[in-house]
Amino acid sequence: MADKSTPMVYLEGLVKTRSQSESVFELHVPHFTVAPGQMVAIIGESGCGKSTLLDIIALVMAPTRVDRFLVAAGNGGPPADVAAHWATDAEGLLAALRRDSLGYVLQTGGLLPFLNVRRNICLSARIKGVALAAERVESLARRLGVVDCLERMPLSLSIGQRQRVAIVRALVHRPRLVLADEPTAAVDKGRARAIMDDMYALARDESVAVVVVSHDVDLVMDRADTVYTFTTDQLSEQLSRSLCRPLADNNR
After folding, report:
1. What backbone phi and psi angles, to 5 degrees, belong to 239?
2. What CA–CA distance (Å, rounded) separates 2 from 130?
3. pLDDT digits (tens, 9 = 90+) for 40-89
4. How many CB atoms lie within 10 A of CB 244?
5. Which pTM was predicted?
6. Could you please report the per-residue DSSP string of 127-186?
7. Could you tell me where the beta strands, DSSP code E, fall in the chain?
């Protein structure tokens, strides 16, 4: 397992302000970190800022201000200073981090219906210019119970199988950080537990950092290394503020 003393993501003093009509929403994150081999969960009610925080970590949304924002580089070099990249509009460097460091699991799986499972799995790696060995694809697919689905089309799969394929696709190019947005929202409790167990085990075995957004406290509380939650206050008729802070640290 990779050294947990070196975080894959480190955030300090983050604020994101969003305006809509006459209302203003402020997200405050005093501190957030995830290390290799860890699974960190973000939970909270709808509208509290979960997806906003995930978009910031995914480098597709700039914070309004942040004291420190580091993301591990995909080439294994020193962490990238994301705060400096946003401040200087260094889109090329941000794009390289997205391409080389991140894997993403969408809530709906996000498989293309006109490609079979194998080609869906390989698509992200092809876009990133990464050559994949067939053994890598088949090993991960076997680990997640979808190796027999590789030549099938997505519409012939169950929802749970599609989500497992999406996890294989996110991991196959060996990213350093995997982000999952409500990956179990569309499946029943039993399948949700199995998928979350798989993600936890794969974080350990692949030495990647996993950040998962979930609305289900019970599902993540015994599985995640750290659980972050939100406290939302209506400060005035126009201004609401959401504070993200650790709810539990399981110290694994």
Report:
1. -115, 125
2. 22
3. 999 988 888 898 999 999 999 999 999 999 998 776 677 899 999 999 99
4. 25
5. 0.87
6. HHT----HHHHHHHHHHTT-GGGTTS-GGGS-HHHHHHHHHHHHHTT--SEEEEESTTTT
7. 9-20, 23-34, 39-43, 68-71, 80-81, 102-105, 177-181, 209-214, 226-234, 239-249
